[in-house]
Amino acid sequence: MVRRARRLAAILGLSSVLGVLSGAAGTALAVPAAANNAAAASGTERYQVAGLEKPASILIDRWGVPHIYANTLYDAFYVQGFMAARDRLWQIDLWRKRGLGEMAKDFGAAYVEGDRMARAVLFRGDMYREWLAYGSDAKRVAEAFVAGVNAFVAQTEAHAELLPPEFRILNYKPARWRAEDIVRIRHHGLTLNFTGEIDRAQIYCYVKPDAVRADWVRRELDPPITPRLPDGLDPCALPAAELRRAYDLATAAPRFPKEWWASAEAGQIPHEALYAVLDGNSDTARSLGSNNWVIAGARTATGRPILANDPHRAHGAPSLRYISHLNAPGLSVIGAGEPFLPGISIGHNDTVGFGLTRFYMDQEDLYVYETNPAQPREYRYRGRWEPMETVTEDIAVKGEATPRKISIDFTRHGPVLYADAKNGRAYALRAAWLDFGMAPYFGSMDYMRAQNWDQFRAAMNRWGAPGENQVYADRDGNIGWLPGGLTPIRPNWDGLTPVPGDGRYEWAGYRNMDELPWAFNPPAGYVVTANENNIPPKHPAARLGIGYEWSDTARARRLKSLVAANAHSSVADSMAWQNDTVSLPALRAVAILANVRSDDAQAQRGLDLLRGWDGNERADSAPAALFEVWFSKYLRPAVVRAALSPDGARLAGYGDASRVLAVLERPEPWMPVERRNEAIVSSLKSAMAEVERKLGPDPRAWQWGKLHTAVFDHPLHPILDAAARQRYDVNAGPIGGSSFTPMNTSYRNNDFQLTAGASFRMVLDVGNWDASRVINTPGQSGNPASPHYRDLAPLWARGEYFPLLYSRKAVEKESRERVELVPQ
């Protein structure tokens, strides 16, 4: 290990590698500031590039937003790709490498199985049909975008100082892109339902007498439904751990753990270390959604519509979102997307504004097959043995002269994630997002250019994945809402558990988009969505089984009350609502404490601190510090244990927050009131003890933000030493809120550090575009040496914004850098 570190130091040209070279304990890599020699320079950068049709200019404003002025339509997307690579090359190269299953090529044997599973969920259909699914010029847009990315890669090959430092740390080079890479990669679409089916099957296996109760506590279903196990499914035969592992390897983001850095032995590294698996006891998975709303001019101070959106995703450095502004003949659109995709998914053009949240339609199923004892690659389907299709591919592995041969099996339903030849079973993923036209978020190609409601709705009729709520507003004063996404038709089951793959449980195609609800200029004058089940109960779609697993309704209910109560709202009001930290679950829990008393002095102090609290989880709030520690770590599992059998409690975990509160509010028949009160007091005492250990004995000094901090970790965090982490990680300091507040700030229970929430927020003053406001975090750049790597984090943490400048005059006034591209 010492030799490896010294060899790497020599490659990087570093004088030393700091940290203790302790072999088995791992090595932290120090990256001297001198190595970060790609700092952005003020003034003008000029590049001569191949593939550009005409000269183009980019004005970069003081907040790091590139405003692109191209002379042809497709040059605009070329330049967008170039600038995304200029600002985020390592991030987008890693996304491509992970998505295509090419991690082992540069990072070694530990990633081989992850590469195999990533390739299992690549789109493998006919590319001609695939491109047509997105619109007439989707392929040309993608070709222009990747040509721009590749043009910047070429610049790094000619000018080594342009190469982001992560490539030097890990000692590899960026790859060239192909247009089909953008649409073949599918793992980034917020896939969730598959593991829910596994969890539910386990409950129906291990808690047979009490499965319905245990599942009710574990996960709220809306509309209410009692899941039914399909005939012929043995939930106890399901290899749950192996299936979760395979799904994680196929879909989760990559990590670079110390174990990998310290050891070449792939078998010693658990998959949870190599891929960012969600904590099953946290609320993070359910909070990976968003808030959005649109308000008609009759309810605003200016008479113009207001559209607001803050998408919630996992946090890290650099940000998932990238703001850019594309101008070309026939196109002027600004907003955010993901840096590895062309176009804008959240923002506005000259006429129309748009914003999205997740609409949790169920697009996945787990199929279970009986396999042929004599030929394990055959499965029983409708009374006969049907052969799997087997694809054999090479995986290049760093340090190995010969690529490894791997095989991936496919049934008629999808890729086989796990096969158990000993027990004669195979398990496959069926996912709508593996079908034609389902590349996540690429469907924005059409709707970002819509000029009216009819065009926007037509574009959303082609939207595939993930399921989305889109809000709409235009300069004529119209507002609207419509969900989009391909919803499978399941004629004879609910989609909540695995099903046999023997032909009895087949999708009958997809729902027509016109079957979904929508609203145009609704009588209320506003629409709010926050990942709740917002299908109107009387709408026919409410009975179609579109989906049952939605986010907790707390954010939606709080936001709807705020919007409804203000008849003349402003852009500033919407900004404040996006940063609102009132927790409705906290208010429910505090109300339950009204008649609870304790003879224990410590517990009573806790009760006194929480009683009368307004539920506002500000960063400086003492009651918020106690409540979140109590509710997330102690109260919920205590209630689950009191309400269920030991096996039921183990599988229900921390329980669904709304279900736990419902049990507390009406403890019968779950438990006697006295037992409920005992669970409240004992759990509160434990929480008090933890907060006292961490923040001291005096509650007057407690603050939620002293525990709950916004730290954006870089993916290389585990292998960097303390000094390097200071440069690569971004600590934005104390933060308020929780998973259940409009300002969504999910955290991990072990240290309360922020894990997910709104990195990007936008509020549009529709028609008066320069008055719109936006924030990204931690910054627009992915280069730690850039002034735009962390400059937005303090603004974001304070709930502040900057202008989303649109007019050329406003852009020029605030520009600080200029980039010129000319054809080669």
Record keyword descriptors for this entry.
single chain; 824 residues; alpha+beta; Penicillin amidase (Acylase) alpha subunit, N-terminal domain; 11-stranded mixed sheet; 8-stranded antiparallel sheet; 33% helix; disordered N terminus
Structural class: alpha+beta
Major sheet attributes: 11 strands, mixed
Oligomer: single chain
Shape: globular
What's the count of strands?
Answer: 29
Gyration radius over CA: 26 Å
Helix share bin = 25-40%
Give a short summary of the structure:
The chain has 28 helices and 29 strands. The protein has a domain at 584-616 and 620-707: Penicillin amidase (Acylase) alpha subunit, N-terminal domain (Orthogonal Bundle), CATH 1.10.1400. The chain is globular and about 80 Å long.
Q: Would you write up a description of this structure?
A:
The protein is an alpha+beta fold. The strands form 5 sheets. It has an 11-stranded mixed β-sheet. Strands 4, 5, 21, 24, 25, 26, 27 and 28 form an 8-stranded antiparallel β-sheet that branches. A hairpin with a 4-residue loop joins β15 (416-420) and β16 (425-431). The longest helix is centred in the first third of the chain and has 28 residues, at 73-100.
Itemize the secondary structure elements and their pairings:
Elements (H helix, E strand, L loop, with lengths): L1 H11 L30 E7 L6 E6 L4 E4 L3 H28 L2 H5 L4 H9 L6 H6 L5 H21 L6 H6 L8 H6 L8 H14 L4 H8 L21 H12 L6 H5 L8 H4 L9 H4 L2 E6 L10 E9 L7 E7 L2 E7 L8 E3 L3 E7 L5 E9 L2 E7 L2 E4 L1 E7 L8 E7 L5 E5 L4 E7 L12 H4 L5 H8 L7 E7 L4 E6 L14 E2 L18 E2 L5 E4 L24 H12 L5 H8 L5 H9 L8 H10 L11 H22 L2 H7 L4 H9 L7 H23 L8 H4 L1 E4 L9 H7 L1 E5 L10 E3 L6 E5 L2 E5 L7 E3 L17 H5 L4 E2 L4 H7 E9 L1
Parallel strand pairs: 1-29, 3-6, 10-19
Antiparallel strand pairs: 2-3, 2-29, 4-5, 4-21, 5-25, 5-26, 6-7, 7-8, 8-9, 9-17, 10-11, 10-16, 11-12, 13-14, 15-16, 17-18, 18-20, 22-23, 24-25, 26-27, 27-28
Helix pairs in contact: 2-6, 4-11, 9-10, 9-11, 9-22, 10-22, 19-23, 20-24, 21-22, 21-23, 21-24
